[in-house]
Amino acid sequence: MGDASRRAFLRQLLAALAVASPAGAVGLGGTGASGAPALHGLTRKGRAITGGFADTDQAVGHALRDGRIPAIGAVATRRARVAIVGGGVSGLSAGWHLDALGLRDWLLLELAPEAGGNARGGRNAVSAYPWGAHYLPLPAPDAVHVRALLREVGVLHADGRFDERTLCHAPQERIFQHGTWHEGLEPLDAAPAWELAEWERFDAQVAAWRESGAFRVPLAGAPFGGSAARETHALDAITADVWLRANGYRSPTLRWWLEYGTRDDYGASLTQVSAWAAAHYFAGRPADEGGPLTWPEGNAFLVRHLTRRAGDRLMHSAPTVRLERVGTRWRVHTPRAVVECDAVIWAAPLFVLPRVLPGVALPVTTEYAPWVVANLTLDRRPRERGAPPAWDNVLYGSASLGYVSATHQSVAQPRDATVWTWYHAVVDRPARDARAWLEQRPWSGWRDEILADLARAHPDVAECVTRLDVWRWGHAMARPVPGLLARTASLDEWRPAPGVLVANADVSGFSIFEEAQWQGVRAAERAARLIGGG
Protein backbone atom coordinates (compact mmCIF):
# COMPACT_ATOMS: atom_id res chain seq x y z
CA MET A 1 0.00 0.00 0.00
CA GLY A 2 1.50 3.34 -1.06
CA ASP A 3 1.58 6.53 1.01
CA ALA A 4 -1.55 7.93 -0.67
CA SER A 5 -3.45 4.67 -0.09
CA ARG A 6 -2.39 4.57 3.57
CA ARG A 7 -3.57 8.13 4.07
CA ALA A 8 -6.87 7.32 2.37
CA PHE A 9 -7.33 4.26 4.60
CA LEU A 10 -6.60 6.30 7.73
CA ARG A 11 -9.13 8.92 6.66
CA GLN A 12 -11.67 6.13 6.14
CA LEU A 13 -10.89 4.69 9.57
CA LEU A 14 -11.12 8.09 11.25
CA ALA A 15 -14.46 8.74 9.52
CA ALA A 16 -15.77 5.41 10.78
CA LEU A 17 -14.57 6.22 14.28
CA ALA A 18 -16.37 9.56 14.18
CA VAL A 19 -19.60 7.72 13.40
CA ALA A 20 -18.93 5.06 16.05
CA SER A 21 -18.07 7.56 18.77
CA PRO A 22 -21.04 9.05 20.64
CA ALA A 23 -19.22 12.37 20.83
CA GLY A 24 -17.84 12.08 17.33
CA ALA A 25 -14.74 13.83 18.62
CA VAL A 26 -11.81 12.04 17.05
CA GLY A 27 -10.49 14.73 14.71
CA LEU A 28 -7.33 16.64 15.57
CA GLY A 29 -6.85 19.85 13.63
CA GLY A 30 -3.41 19.60 12.09
CA THR A 31 -1.14 18.75 9.23
CA GLY A 32 -0.69 15.02 9.55
CA ALA A 33 -2.06 12.09 7.60
CA SER A 34 -5.69 13.10 8.00
CA GLY A 35 -5.11 16.20 5.87
CA ALA A 36 -6.96 18.43 8.35
CA PRO A 37 -6.71 22.14 7.63
CA ALA A 38 -3.95 24.15 9.23
CA LEU A 39 -4.59 26.61 12.01
CA HIS A 40 -3.49 30.22 11.76
CA GLY A 41 -2.24 32.77 14.25
CA LEU A 42 -0.82 36.26 14.15
CA THR A 43 2.23 37.57 15.96
CA ARG A 44 1.91 40.89 17.71
CA LYS A 45 3.30 42.60 14.59
CA GLY A 46 0.67 40.95 12.44
CA ARG A 47 2.69 38.20 10.73
CA ALA A 48 0.66 35.07 10.09
CA ILE A 49 2.02 31.75 11.40
CA THR A 50 0.31 28.61 10.14
CA GLY A 51 0.48 25.18 11.70
CA GLY A 52 -1.45 22.67 13.75
CA PHE A 53 -1.32 19.33 15.51
CA ALA A 54 0.45 16.67 13.47
CA ASP A 55 -0.36 13.69 15.76
CA THR A 56 -3.44 12.50 13.90
CA ASP A 57 -2.98 8.80 14.73
CA GLN A 58 -3.72 9.70 18.36
CA ALA A 59 -7.42 9.31 17.54
CA VAL A 60 -6.89 5.69 16.48
CA GLY A 61 -4.97 4.97 19.68
CA HIS A 62 -7.79 6.39 21.79
CA ALA A 63 -10.35 4.37 19.86
CA LEU A 64 -8.30 1.22 20.48
CA ARG A 65 -8.21 2.10 24.17
CA ASP A 66 -11.99 2.49 24.21
CA GLY A 67 -12.77 -0.56 22.05
CA ARG A 68 -14.30 1.51 19.26
CA ILE A 69 -12.31 0.42 16.18
CA PRO A 70 -14.67 -1.07 13.60
CA ALA A 71 -13.80 -3.32 10.65
CA ILE A 72 -13.40 -1.39 7.39
CA GLY A 73 -14.74 -3.33 4.41
CA ALA A 74 -13.62 -6.88 3.64
CA VAL A 75 -10.92 -8.23 5.94
CA ALA A 76 -8.35 -10.48 4.30
CA THR A 77 -6.66 -13.42 5.99
CA ARG A 78 -2.86 -13.47 5.92
CA ARG A 79 -0.53 -16.19 7.16
CA ALA A 80 3.00 -15.86 8.55
CA ARG A 81 5.28 -17.71 10.92
CA VAL A 82 5.64 -14.61 13.12
CA ALA A 83 3.41 -11.57 13.55
CA ILE A 84 5.07 -8.48 15.01
CA VAL A 85 2.73 -5.95 16.61
CA GLY A 86 4.13 -2.42 16.70
CA GLY A 87 6.36 -0.73 14.14
CA GLY A 88 8.64 1.30 16.38
CA VAL A 89 12.36 0.62 16.68
CA SER A 90 11.74 -2.62 18.64
CA GLY A 91 9.32 -4.09 16.11
CA LEU A 92 11.39 -3.08 13.09
CA SER A 93 14.50 -4.49 14.77
CA ALA A 94 12.71 -7.77 15.47
CA GLY A 95 11.94 -8.15 11.76
CA TRP A 96 15.47 -7.11 10.83
CA HIS A 97 16.96 -9.77 13.11
CA LEU A 98 14.52 -12.47 12.04
CA ASP A 99 15.85 -11.94 8.53
CA ALA A 100 19.41 -12.32 9.84
CA LEU A 101 18.37 -15.62 11.43
CA GLY A 102 16.98 -16.85 8.09
CA LEU A 103 13.33 -16.57 9.15
CA ARG A 104 11.85 -14.23 6.56
CA ASP A 105 8.19 -15.25 6.88
CA TRP A 106 6.92 -12.47 9.17
CA LEU A 107 4.44 -9.61 9.07
CA LEU A 108 4.68 -6.37 11.00
CA LEU A 109 1.41 -4.64 11.97
CA GLU A 110 1.62 -0.92 12.69
CA LEU A 111 -1.22 1.28 14.00
CA ALA A 112 -0.05 4.49 12.30
CA PRO A 113 0.27 5.31 8.57
CA GLU A 114 4.04 5.50 9.10
CA ALA A 115 6.34 3.24 11.11
CA GLY A 116 8.96 4.43 13.57
CA GLY A 117 7.16 5.14 16.84
CA ASN A 118 8.86 8.00 18.66
CA ALA A 119 11.69 7.94 16.09
CA ARG A 120 9.50 9.21 13.27
CA GLY A 121 10.37 12.20 11.13
CA GLY A 122 8.84 14.55 8.58
CA ARG A 123 9.86 16.73 5.67
CA ASN A 124 8.87 20.02 4.10
CA ALA A 125 10.25 22.24 1.34
CA VAL A 126 13.09 23.44 3.59
CA SER A 127 14.36 20.25 5.23
CA ALA A 128 13.67 16.86 6.71
CA TYR A 129 13.21 17.01 10.51
CA PRO A 130 12.60 14.71 13.49
CA TRP A 131 9.36 14.20 15.39
CA GLY A 132 11.14 12.51 18.27
CA ALA A 133 14.54 10.87 18.75
CA HIS A 134 17.11 12.97 16.92
CA TYR A 135 20.55 11.45 17.57
CA LEU A 136 22.46 8.27 18.37
CA PRO A 137 25.58 8.24 20.57
CA LEU A 138 28.50 6.33 19.11
CA PRO A 139 27.90 2.70 20.13
CA ALA A 140 30.50 0.91 22.22
CA PRO A 141 32.17 -2.16 20.67
CA ASP A 142 29.92 -4.51 22.69
CA ALA A 143 26.76 -2.90 21.20
CA VAL A 144 27.15 -5.40 18.38
CA HIS A 145 23.66 -5.11 16.89
CA VAL A 146 23.70 -1.31 16.75
CA ARG A 147 27.09 -1.46 15.03
CA ALA A 148 25.83 -4.09 12.59
CA LEU A 149 22.94 -1.85 11.59
CA LEU A 150 25.26 1.14 11.18
CA ARG A 151 27.55 -0.91 8.93
CA GLU A 152 24.52 -1.93 6.89
CA VAL A 153 23.47 1.69 6.28
CA GLY A 154 27.02 2.79 5.44
CA VAL A 155 27.56 4.90 8.57
CA LEU A 156 30.21 2.63 10.12
CA HIS A 157 33.04 1.67 7.76
CA ALA A 158 34.90 -1.63 7.76
CA ASP A 159 37.96 0.02 9.30
CA GLY A 160 35.91 1.19 12.29
CA ARG A 161 35.57 4.84 11.22
CA PHE A 162 32.19 6.57 11.27
CA ASP A 163 31.04 8.49 8.21
CA GLU A 164 32.01 12.11 8.86
CA ARG A 165 28.83 13.34 7.19
CA THR A 166 26.77 11.75 9.98
CA LEU A 167 28.99 12.73 12.91
CA CYS A 168 27.52 15.90 14.36
CA HIS A 169 29.24 18.89 12.79
CA ALA A 170 30.83 21.62 14.88
CA PRO A 171 29.69 23.64 16.70
CA GLN A 172 27.66 20.93 18.39
CA GLU A 173 26.19 22.59 21.48
CA ARG A 174 25.64 25.95 23.09
CA ILE A 175 23.71 27.30 26.08
CA PHE A 176 22.00 30.67 26.56
CA GLN A 177 22.83 32.06 29.99
CA HIS A 178 23.06 35.61 31.36
CA GLY A 179 21.87 37.18 28.13
CA THR A 180 24.27 35.55 25.69
CA TRP A 181 25.15 32.22 24.06
CA HIS A 182 28.09 30.18 25.41
CA GLU A 183 29.78 27.15 23.81
CA GLY A 184 29.00 23.79 25.40
CA LEU A 185 26.05 22.84 27.60
CA GLU A 186 27.43 23.32 31.11
CA PRO A 187 25.90 26.51 32.61
CA LEU A 188 29.06 27.69 34.31
CA ASP A 189 29.17 31.34 33.29
CA ALA A 190 30.15 33.31 36.43
CA ALA A 191 29.67 30.25 38.67
CA PRO A 192 31.25 30.76 42.13
CA ALA A 193 34.09 28.56 43.36
CA TRP A 194 31.89 26.50 45.68
CA GLU A 195 29.64 25.50 42.78
CA LEU A 196 32.62 24.58 40.62
CA ALA A 197 33.84 22.36 43.47
CA GLU A 198 30.52 20.52 43.49
CA TRP A 199 30.77 20.00 39.73
CA GLU A 200 34.24 18.49 40.18
CA ARG A 201 32.97 16.23 42.97
CA PHE A 202 30.10 15.01 40.80
CA ASP A 203 32.48 14.37 37.88
CA ALA A 204 34.59 12.17 40.17
CA GLN A 205 31.47 10.27 41.25
CA VAL A 206 30.48 9.65 37.62
CA ALA A 207 33.99 8.38 36.88
CA ALA A 208 33.70 5.90 39.74
CA TRP A 209 30.29 4.73 38.55
CA ARG A 210 31.63 4.30 35.03
CA GLU A 211 34.62 2.34 36.30
CA SER A 212 32.31 -0.07 38.20
CA GLY A 213 30.95 -1.49 34.94
CA ALA A 214 27.41 -1.55 36.36
CA PHE A 215 26.17 0.92 33.77
CA ARG A 216 26.01 -0.29 30.19
CA VAL A 217 24.18 0.47 26.95
CA PRO A 218 22.29 -1.71 26.30
CA LEU A 219 21.69 -3.00 29.82
CA ALA A 220 22.16 -6.66 28.79
CA GLY A 221 25.21 -8.05 30.56
CA ALA A 222 25.52 -5.32 33.20
CA PRO A 223 26.55 -6.88 36.54
CA PHE A 224 23.62 -6.49 38.93
CA GLY A 225 24.89 -9.10 41.36
CA GLY A 226 27.95 -9.41 43.58
CA SER A 227 29.58 -6.48 45.31
CA ALA A 228 28.03 -3.91 42.95
CA ALA A 229 24.49 -5.03 43.75
CA ARG A 230 24.11 -3.22 47.08
CA GLU A 231 24.99 0.22 45.73
CA THR A 232 23.10 -0.37 42.48
CA HIS A 233 19.84 -1.30 44.18
CA ALA A 234 20.26 1.37 46.85
CA LEU A 235 20.45 3.99 44.09
CA ASP A 236 17.39 2.52 42.39
CA ALA A 237 15.34 2.66 45.58
CA ILE A 238 15.39 6.48 45.74
CA THR A 239 14.96 9.44 43.44
CA ALA A 240 17.86 11.47 42.08
CA ASP A 241 16.67 14.42 44.15
CA VAL A 242 16.89 12.40 47.38
CA TRP A 243 20.38 11.16 46.46
CA LEU A 244 21.65 14.66 45.66
CA ARG A 245 20.34 16.06 48.94
CA ALA A 246 21.74 13.16 50.95
CA ASN A 247 25.16 13.74 49.39
CA GLY A 248 25.20 17.48 49.96
CA TYR A 249 24.80 18.74 46.41
CA ARG A 250 23.32 22.24 46.56
CA SER A 251 24.59 23.91 43.37
CA PRO A 252 21.60 25.26 41.37
CA THR A 253 23.54 25.11 38.11
CA LEU A 254 24.54 21.47 38.71
CA ARG A 255 21.01 20.45 39.68
CA TRP A 256 19.56 22.18 36.61
CA TRP A 257 22.12 20.53 34.32
CA LEU A 258 21.49 17.07 35.82
CA GLU A 259 17.75 17.52 35.37
CA TYR A 260 18.29 18.66 31.80
CA GLY A 261 19.86 15.22 31.25
CA THR A 262 17.05 13.25 32.90
CA ARG A 263 14.39 15.25 31.06
CA ASP A 264 16.28 14.70 27.81
CA ASP A 265 16.61 10.91 27.95
CA TYR A 266 13.79 9.95 30.31
CA GLY A 267 11.17 12.70 30.32
CA ALA A 268 11.58 12.88 34.10
CA SER A 269 12.51 15.45 36.74
CA LEU A 270 14.99 14.83 39.55
CA THR A 271 12.05 14.25 41.90
CA GLN A 272 10.63 11.57 39.56
CA VAL A 273 13.60 9.64 38.19
CA SER A 274 15.41 6.77 39.89
CA ALA A 275 18.84 7.81 41.13
CA TRP A 276 20.25 4.74 39.37
CA ALA A 277 18.73 5.85 36.04
CA ALA A 278 20.12 9.37 36.53
CA ALA A 279 23.55 7.87 37.17
CA HIS A 280 23.16 5.67 34.09
CA TYR A 281 22.57 8.73 31.90
CA PHE A 282 26.07 9.98 32.73
CA ALA A 283 27.98 6.76 33.48
CA GLY A 284 26.55 4.47 30.79
CA ARG A 285 28.81 5.88 28.07
CA PRO A 286 32.50 6.86 27.81
CA ALA A 287 33.49 10.29 29.11
CA ASP A 288 34.18 11.38 25.53
CA GLU A 289 32.41 9.04 23.14
CA GLY A 290 33.13 11.22 20.10
CA GLY A 291 29.61 11.53 18.73
CA PRO A 292 26.80 11.84 18.36
CA LEU A 293 25.53 10.61 15.02
CA THR A 294 22.69 12.69 13.65
CA TRP A 295 20.71 13.31 10.49
CA PRO A 296 18.31 16.09 9.46
CA GLU A 297 15.37 13.76 10.19
CA GLY A 298 17.00 12.35 13.32
CA ASN A 299 16.71 8.61 13.95
CA ALA A 300 14.01 8.42 11.29
CA PHE A 301 17.01 7.90 8.98
CA LEU A 302 17.54 4.46 10.55
CA VAL A 303 13.81 3.77 10.76
CA ARG A 304 13.35 4.38 7.04
CA HIS A 305 16.13 1.95 6.21
CA LEU A 306 14.46 -0.74 8.33
CA THR A 307 11.10 0.12 6.75
CA ARG A 308 12.50 -0.31 3.24
CA ARG A 309 13.97 -3.69 4.22
CA ALA A 310 10.60 -4.81 5.53
CA GLY A 311 8.93 -3.99 2.21
CA ASP A 312 5.42 -5.37 1.85
CA ARG A 313 5.79 -7.34 5.07
CA LEU A 314 5.03 -4.08 6.90
CA MET A 315 1.31 -3.32 7.09
CA HIS A 316 0.53 0.30 7.99
CA SER A 317 -2.72 1.66 9.46
CA ALA A 318 -3.37 -1.78 10.93
CA PRO A 319 -4.05 -1.42 14.67
CA THR A 320 -4.26 -4.75 16.46
CA VAL A 321 -7.66 -4.98 18.14
CA ARG A 322 -7.57 -8.59 19.41
CA LEU A 323 -5.21 -11.51 19.89
CA GLU A 324 -6.95 -14.88 19.76
CA ARG A 325 -5.51 -18.32 20.48
CA VAL A 326 -6.81 -20.98 18.07
CA GLY A 327 -5.34 -24.39 18.79
CA THR A 328 -1.57 -23.99 18.78
CA ARG A 329 -1.63 -20.86 16.62
CA TRP A 330 -2.58 -17.22 17.02
CA ARG A 331 -4.92 -14.95 15.15
CA VAL A 332 -4.06 -11.26 15.19
CA HIS A 333 -7.13 -9.19 14.29
CA THR A 334 -6.83 -5.76 12.64
CA PRO A 335 -9.39 -3.73 10.63
CA ARG A 336 -7.44 -4.57 7.46
CA ALA A 337 -6.51 -8.22 7.94
CA VAL A 338 -6.52 -11.22 10.24
CA VAL A 339 -3.03 -12.67 10.53
CA GLU A 340 -2.65 -16.34 11.46
CA CYS A 341 0.78 -17.12 12.90
CA ASP A 342 2.83 -19.44 15.10
CA ALA A 343 4.24 -16.71 17.36
CA VAL A 344 3.48 -13.10 18.21
CA ILE A 345 6.13 -10.52 19.09
CA TRP A 346 4.41 -7.75 21.03
CA ALA A 347 6.52 -4.66 20.26
CA ALA A 348 3.83 -2.09 21.05
CA PRO A 349 3.73 -0.38 24.48
CA LEU A 350 3.00 -2.86 27.26
CA PHE A 351 -0.03 -1.01 28.63
CA VAL A 352 -1.97 -1.75 25.41
CA LEU A 353 -1.57 -5.53 25.62
CA PRO A 354 -4.32 -6.26 28.21
CA ARG A 355 -6.78 -4.36 26.00
CA VAL A 356 -6.34 -6.82 23.12
CA LEU A 357 -5.47 -10.05 24.96
CA PRO A 358 -8.24 -10.84 27.47
CA GLY A 359 -7.10 -12.29 30.75
CA VAL A 360 -3.50 -11.12 30.63
CA ALA A 361 -2.20 -9.20 33.65
CA LEU A 362 0.96 -7.13 33.45
CA PRO A 363 3.49 -8.04 36.16
CA VAL A 364 4.54 -4.39 36.56
CA THR A 365 3.05 -0.91 36.34
CA THR A 366 4.84 1.45 33.97
CA GLU A 367 4.67 5.23 34.19
CA TYR A 368 4.81 6.94 30.79
CA ALA A 369 6.32 10.37 30.17
CA PRO A 370 4.26 12.86 28.12
CA TRP A 371 6.20 14.98 25.63
CA VAL A 372 5.61 17.79 23.17
CA VAL A 373 7.74 18.20 20.04
CA ALA A 374 7.31 21.15 17.70
CA ASN A 375 8.86 21.86 14.32
CA LEU A 376 9.23 25.51 13.42
CA THR A 377 9.91 26.57 9.84
CA LEU A 378 11.82 29.85 9.61
CA ASP A 379 12.33 31.86 6.42
CA ARG A 380 15.30 33.73 7.93
CA ARG A 381 17.60 33.36 10.93
CA PRO A 382 16.89 35.52 13.98
CA ARG A 383 19.53 37.79 15.45
CA GLU A 384 22.23 36.20 17.61
CA ARG A 385 24.43 37.18 20.53
CA GLY A 386 27.52 35.28 21.63
CA ALA A 387 28.56 31.81 20.45
CA PRO A 388 27.51 30.95 16.87
CA PRO A 389 24.48 28.77 16.03
CA ALA A 390 24.95 25.12 16.93
CA TRP A 391 23.14 21.85 16.33
CA ASP A 392 21.80 21.71 19.91
CA ASN A 393 20.71 25.03 21.43
CA VAL A 394 19.68 25.05 25.11
CA LEU A 395 18.17 27.83 27.22
CA TYR A 396 19.38 27.80 30.83
CA GLY A 397 16.47 27.86 33.27
CA SER A 398 13.87 26.99 30.64
CA ALA A 399 11.29 24.27 31.18
CA SER A 400 11.96 23.19 27.58
CA LEU A 401 14.99 21.33 26.26
CA GLY A 402 15.67 24.00 23.67
CA TYR A 403 15.90 23.21 19.98
CA VAL A 404 18.01 21.38 17.42
CA SER A 405 18.62 22.70 13.91
CA ALA A 406 17.54 20.27 11.18
CA THR A 407 19.76 22.01 8.60
CA HIS A 408 22.91 21.94 10.75
CA GLN A 409 24.27 18.83 8.99
CA SER A 410 23.82 20.31 5.52
CA VAL A 411 27.03 20.61 3.50
CA ALA A 412 25.37 22.86 0.94
CA GLN A 413 25.71 26.64 0.87
CA PRO A 414 24.04 28.00 4.03
CA ARG A 415 20.49 29.26 3.47
CA ASP A 416 18.38 31.69 5.41
CA ALA A 417 15.52 29.20 5.72
CA THR A 418 15.76 26.46 8.34
CA VAL A 419 13.71 24.14 10.59
CA TRP A 420 14.10 24.09 14.35
CA THR A 421 12.82 21.15 16.41
CA TRP A 422 11.77 22.23 19.92
CA TYR A 423 11.47 19.66 22.72
CA HIS A 424 9.52 19.76 25.96
CA ALA A 425 9.09 16.94 28.49
CA VAL A 426 6.04 17.58 30.67
CA VAL A 427 7.36 16.95 34.18
CA ASP A 428 5.50 19.56 36.22
CA ARG A 429 2.38 17.47 36.92
CA PRO A 430 1.41 13.78 37.30
CA ALA A 431 1.58 11.90 34.02
CA ARG A 432 -2.16 11.18 33.84
CA ASP A 433 -3.00 14.85 34.44
CA ALA A 434 -0.38 15.88 31.89
CA ARG A 435 -2.00 13.72 29.20
CA ALA A 436 -5.41 15.27 29.85
CA TRP A 437 -3.85 18.71 29.71
CA LEU A 438 -2.14 17.91 26.40
CA GLU A 439 -5.47 16.91 24.89
CA GLN A 440 -7.23 20.04 26.06
CA ARG A 441 -4.64 22.71 25.32
CA PRO A 442 -5.15 24.41 21.93
CA TRP A 443 -2.46 24.79 19.30
CA SER A 444 -2.41 28.53 19.89
CA GLY A 445 -1.34 27.91 23.50
CA TRP A 446 1.69 25.96 22.32
CA ARG A 447 2.48 28.51 19.63
CA ASP A 448 2.54 31.31 22.17
CA GLU A 449 4.57 29.36 24.77
CA ILE A 450 7.16 28.18 22.25
CA LEU A 451 7.68 31.63 20.76
CA ALA A 452 7.94 33.19 24.23
CA ASP A 453 10.48 30.53 25.29
CA LEU A 454 12.67 31.11 22.23
CA ALA A 455 12.30 34.90 22.43
CA ARG A 456 14.48 34.88 25.55
CA ALA A 457 17.44 34.23 23.24
CA HIS A 458 15.95 35.42 19.93
CA PRO A 459 13.70 38.46 20.54
CA ASP A 460 12.73 38.63 16.86
CA VAL A 461 11.97 34.92 16.42
CA ALA A 462 8.22 35.47 15.89
CA GLU A 463 9.04 37.56 12.81
CA CYS A 464 11.08 34.70 11.33
CA VAL A 465 8.67 31.76 11.80
CA THR A 466 6.23 30.95 9.00
CA ARG A 467 4.88 27.62 10.29
CA LEU A 468 4.77 25.84 13.64
CA ASP A 469 3.55 22.23 13.90
CA VAL A 470 3.12 20.35 17.17
CA TRP A 471 3.20 16.64 18.04
CA ARG A 472 1.83 15.57 21.43
CA TRP A 473 3.25 12.29 22.71
CA GLY A 474 0.96 11.18 25.54
CA HIS A 475 2.93 7.98 26.17
CA ALA A 476 6.27 8.97 24.68
CA MET A 477 8.44 6.64 26.74
CA ALA A 478 8.62 4.58 29.90
CA ARG A 479 9.74 6.82 32.76
CA PRO A 480 12.40 5.13 34.96
CA VAL A 481 11.02 5.93 38.40
CA PRO A 482 12.51 4.16 41.47
CA GLY A 483 12.19 0.38 41.33
CA LEU A 484 13.32 0.22 37.70
CA LEU A 485 15.65 -2.75 38.17
CA ALA A 486 13.00 -4.83 39.95
CA ARG A 487 10.50 -4.09 37.18
CA THR A 488 13.07 -5.01 34.53
CA ALA A 489 13.80 -8.30 36.30
CA SER A 490 10.06 -9.10 36.48
CA LEU A 491 9.69 -8.57 32.73
CA ASP A 492 12.89 -10.32 31.67
CA GLU A 493 11.44 -13.82 31.32
CA TRP A 494 7.74 -12.91 31.37
CA ARG A 495 5.48 -14.63 28.84
CA PRO A 496 1.96 -13.16 28.53
CA ALA A 497 0.75 -16.40 26.90
CA PRO A 498 2.27 -19.38 25.06
CA GLY A 499 3.87 -18.12 21.87
CA VAL A 500 3.61 -14.41 22.79
CA LEU A 501 6.91 -12.58 23.36
CA VAL A 502 7.37 -8.98 24.50
CA ALA A 503 9.87 -6.69 22.83
CA ASN A 504 9.18 -3.01 23.52
CA ALA A 505 11.74 -0.71 25.19
CA ASP A 506 9.24 -0.74 28.09
CA VAL A 507 10.91 -4.02 29.05
CA SER A 508 14.17 -2.15 29.67
CA GLY A 509 12.30 0.51 31.61
CA PHE A 510 13.51 3.47 29.54
CA SER A 511 13.38 4.37 25.87
CA ILE A 512 16.64 4.83 24.00
CA PHE A 513 17.48 3.38 20.60
CA GLU A 514 19.92 0.75 21.86
CA GLU A 515 17.47 -0.67 24.40
CA ALA A 516 14.59 -0.73 21.92
CA GLN A 517 16.74 -2.49 19.33
CA TRP A 518 18.05 -5.02 21.86
CA GLN A 519 14.55 -5.96 23.00
CA GLY A 520 13.51 -6.52 19.37
CA VAL A 521 16.60 -8.63 18.65
CA ARG A 522 16.13 -10.75 21.78
CA ALA A 523 12.45 -11.38 20.99
CA ALA A 524 13.37 -12.39 17.44
CA GLU A 525 15.85 -14.95 18.73
CA ARG A 526 13.31 -16.38 21.15
CA ALA A 527 10.64 -16.55 18.44
CA ALA A 528 13.03 -18.36 16.09
CA ARG A 529 13.85 -20.94 18.79
CA LEU A 530 10.16 -21.35 19.62
CA ILE A 531 9.05 -22.18 16.09
CA GLY A 532 12.19 -23.94 14.94
CA GLY A 533 13.95 -21.35 12.78
CA GLY A 534 13.35 -20.63 9.10
What does this structure look like?
It contains 15 helices and 20 strands. The protein is globular. It has 534 residues and is α/β, with parallel strands linked by helices. The strands form four sheets. The chain has a nine-stranded mixed β-sheet. Strands 10-5-4-14-20 form a five-stranded parallel β-sheet, covered by helices on one side. A four-stranded mixed β-sheet has the order 3-13-12-11, with no helix packed on it. Residues 17-37 have low confidence and may be disordered. The longest helix is centred in the middle third of the chain and has 20 residues, at 193-212. The protein is 33% helix and 19% strand. It has helices spanning 3-20, 58-66, 89-100, 144-152, 193-212, 228-236, 240-246, 252-266, 275-283, 300-310, 353-356, 431-440, 443-455, 484-492, 513-531; strands at residues 39-42, 48-53, 76-79, 82-85, 106-109, 121-123, 128-130, 173-177, 180-183, 314-315, 322-326, 329-333, 337-341, 343-346, 368-378, 392-395, 403-405, 418-425, 465-478, 500-502.
